[in-house]
Structure formats: structure tokens, C-alpha cells
Fold this protein.
Amino acid sequence: MSPNTDPRNETAGPADTANTMSAWARMGVYAFALIVAVVAAFFAGMAHFEATKCSGPDFGGECDLAGLEGVMWSAAVLVLAVIAIAITEGVRARNRRRHQQNRASEA
């Protein structure tokens, strides 16, 4: 391993240290964060519904629909997270290709 590609080297550039996490490790981090975000969105959606619909003077006994709003919030977070992951991985792939092209042109 050359000194420029060693991630422990303090003089290594950002492109050299950015690829230290494997794809499986990134997938695990994405999956964990996605699960936490979806569960949090579900409970936030339920709390929002209960705070806005169940506590007012015109309460009609429809608090059992709070779970539906929680599911809708979870679905929205899921879609946004998948889009964010796709964009992140696309940027990583583009940077990796640029870095490989730069190395090939230097050789």
C-alpha cells in the first residue's frame, strides 16, 4: 500500500480516506438509521394527530385514526430516506470514478 492511499496517513487526501467503509457496513448503517427514522416518524405522526385532533373542543372520538397518520408519516420518511441514500451512493460512485480516472491519468 502506498503512503498516499493509506487511510492512517495524515497527509492522505479526502478521496483516499472517504472509501474506508465497506459497502456492507454502509448498508448496515443505512438500514439501522432507516428503521430508527421510520419508527420515530410513526410515533411523531401519532402524537401530532392526537395533539391536533383529539384534544380540541370539537373532538368526535376519532383518535383511533392516529395510527393511520403515523403510517403516512412513516411512508413519507421511508421515501425521502431511500431518495437520500440513492443520491449519496450516486455521489460516492461518481467521486470514486473521478478518483480512479485521475489515478489512471497520473500513471
Helices lie at 14-17, 23-53, 66-106.
